[in-house]
Amino acid sequence: MRSGFPIIYEQPVFRPPGEAQSLLLQVTTGCSHNRCTFCAMYRGKSFRVRPLAEIQRELTLCADYFARRGETVRKIFLCDGDALAAPSAHLLGVLDRVHTCFPALRRIGIYATAANVRAKTDTELALLGKRKLTLAYIGLESGSDAVLRAVNKGNNAAEVVEAAQRLSQHGWQTSLIVMLGLNGRAFASAHREETAMVISQTPARFLSFLTTVAVPNTPYFRAIEAGDIQPLTSRELLEEMHYLIAHIDCPKPVIFRANHVSNQFPLEGVLSKDRAKLLSTLEQWIRSCPANLYPDANPFLL
Ligand code: SF4
Question: Whose CA is nearest to atom 4 of ligand 1?
Fold first, then answer.
């Protein structure tokens, strides 16, 4: 943390890799769903919407802090896990203060669920979009409804497609997140085939792959310990990534990244322009990957 920085965050705080340069603003704490079996990000937090006056005060202090340092804030990311769950009037109050404090701002991003988007009217999405809240990171996780049910995601794949379509109609971009290897070997073929199909139907501008890692003290971890889920090896995960890259067929270019800390093999490019190059890299990795290697467990992931 920089010295004198005026915000004391309610930890832990998570942000997408692409928001590393953004000012993080906690509009909500926790996740309004908080029941995905694999996710430990907000298990220790209760969901709440932070008071508007508190957030506005932080923004004023941040404006002063960055002005004194001669720094310009160009991007803001709204935390925590699904800040779009906050009422629209609340978000509009935050965004209005954001623009007063940071007139050079280019874009605001947010984590969102399909349910958050569904709960907003078209007018609300348009009003938020006009205030530069135009990038929603949505966890599709899997295109297979069987996988989504098994991990208690709280929505089906069609609802994610519908959310991205509505966001796109109102000038937003969607960054779709997929979890490689989710729910293990028994679901692997449904996961990869239906995920490739659903991504192809979703108007996403960005796509990122994360590797599913069992986090201790989660239902997912216990299911692996009990033998109910057989995790994929690193080579199987590479093969899954290869299948997805080979079969995703999006009408518009999609900026693809698999550079999350959970990924043993970082990869990025533009789909479908870079498809051949990405596949060739994956094929080399698959050939050289030991058959019995598993991704490292890291309790800080996800
Ligand atoms: S994966 Fe997303 S929606 Fe699910 S519990 Fe974690 S933060 Fe909430």
Answer: 36
